[in-house]
Task: structure prediction
Amino acid sequence: MNEPAMPQPWQWEDEHWRKLVGHVRAGDAYRPRSWKGGARCALALSFDSDHETNELRDGGKSIGRLSWGQYGNRVGVPRILRLLEKYGVPATFYVPAVAALLHPDEQRRVIAEGHEIGIHGWIHELNSVLPHDAERDLLLRAADTLEKITGTRPVGIRTPSWDFSPNTLAIEQEMGLLYDSSLMADEDCYELLLDGVPTGIVELPVEWVRDDAVYFMMHRFQSLRPHTPPREVLEIFRREFDAAYEEGGICQLTMHPHIIGYRSRIFIVEEIIRHAKAKGDVWFATHREVVEWAKTHAA
Ligand SMILES: [Zn+2]
Result:
């Protein structure tokens, strides 16, 4: 009876909230004076090929939503690959291991066409609800699975839903990964610190504002509905690019084959590519290439 309640956030000692904030932090910025070939700006396109795993992660009950995932493989990825090939632009695809096992030929084609594949969890699980051993086991198996299917060992990770547990960074370090692309403390690349200690892992930051899902996601039985017209999303992405170009930085975009890969939306990707090409001094690169350049050419 009347056990003392857990302290509320407004009752925490300074030491406690400082520890929470300081656990995973941005360290040194990796900002090169110029990009490869003297380019002024780097454009890093990424596509998270979640396919059926979003629904499987939630229990796999909806056949309709599983078919939506299959669209990502049947229509979305081929449409995106055709577009990238048309302009000779490389991109990075983050693929949950279960999506890779369901669609191994897609992954082999992505690699064969010169793109990068990065880790995206096992079944799009949320890391923050997993015990350490389960999270570690799934990430190790995910890396092995992608390597087995494609013949290429992934060097980067995007955690599913950008969800990060208190253990994620230490596991990434143990795996010897080059980079993470799930956090958002900057617009330039930066080194990740674990409890104040440099990890050597580079963050290539993401942001919800540069993610197609934010504007277009739909759920029939929840209140989630698309709320931004495609031309407005192009406008937001283009402004993000234009400012990155002015500042000599990185324009990084996160998109999804089952979201952007529609007849009425794919023009957004094409227009961004055409707009960047027209500048004449933009480096189109995979996330891995951007990170390697930023790490070795930091000003
Ligand atoms: Zn995802």
Summary: The radius of gyration is 20 Å. The first helix runs from residue 14 to 22. Strands lie at 24-30, 41-48, 92-95, 116-119, 156-157, 179-180, 189-194, 197-203, 250-255, 282-284.
